[in-house]
């Protein structure tokens, strides 16, 4: 094969590969899907990602993604699990599987462990920290949690409106 044929073959492969997708959370209605819509297109519920993604990068060809928040985010689930999301999370996504995750940790007893993989098995999600995993029903993730209050925000918002909760600017939710 001649050098020109090789160059033409390389260019045809390069041009045939879809470019990475870069989008912001508030695109104003452009054709780019949100990070939450990308999750759904791979059979994941939106609730595995908290509210507040400002933008994301996604390469369709490799499944590599990065999602960004304005700052780190933490909240408790069902009073037993504490989760932290860094301001940047990344990994690889494919149908029913998130692998190579970084930027998401869960508190187990007194240790913070990295969640490295999430798999969907029918109506359940399996969260792995490498040495152990926990399975939860998918119905727990139909809505995205909010930083600071998780899924318990409605009662906190109602109490705040009634004046039962006062904010302290010197206390962080993280």
UniProtKB/TrEMBL annotation:
* Keyword Signal assigned: yes
- Keywords (A to Z) from UniProt: Signal
Q: Is the Signal keyword given for this protein?
A: yes
Q: Name one Pfam family in it.
A: DUF538
Any signal peptide, and if so, which residues? 1-23
Task: Quote the InterPro entries the UniProt record gives.
Answer: At5g01610-like, DUF538
In terms of superkingdom, the source organism counts as: Eukaryota
Q: What is this protein called?
A: Uncharacterized protein
């Amino acid at each position: 094969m001649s050098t020109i044929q090789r160059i033409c073959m390389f260019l045809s492969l390069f041009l045939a590969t879809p470019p990475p997708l870069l989008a912001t959370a508030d695109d104003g209605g452009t054709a780019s899907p949100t990070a939450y819509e990308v999750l759904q297109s791979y059979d994941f519920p939106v609730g595995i990602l908290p509210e507040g993604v400002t933008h994301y990068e996604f390469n369709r060809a490799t499944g590599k993604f990065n999602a960004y928040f304005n700052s780190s985010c933490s909240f408790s689930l069902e009073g037993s699990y504490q989760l932290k999301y860094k301001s940047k999370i990344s990994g690889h996504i494919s149908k029913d599987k998130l692998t190579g995750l970084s930027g998401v940790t869960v508190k187990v007893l007194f240790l913070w462990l990295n969640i490295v993989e999430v798999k969907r098995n029918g109506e359940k999600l399996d969260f792995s920290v490498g040495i152990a995993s926990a399975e939860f029903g998918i119905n727990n993730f139909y809505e995205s949690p909010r930083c600071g209050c998780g899924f318990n925000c409605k009662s906190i918002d109602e109490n705040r409106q009634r004046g039962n909760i006062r904010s302290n600017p010197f206390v962080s939710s993280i």
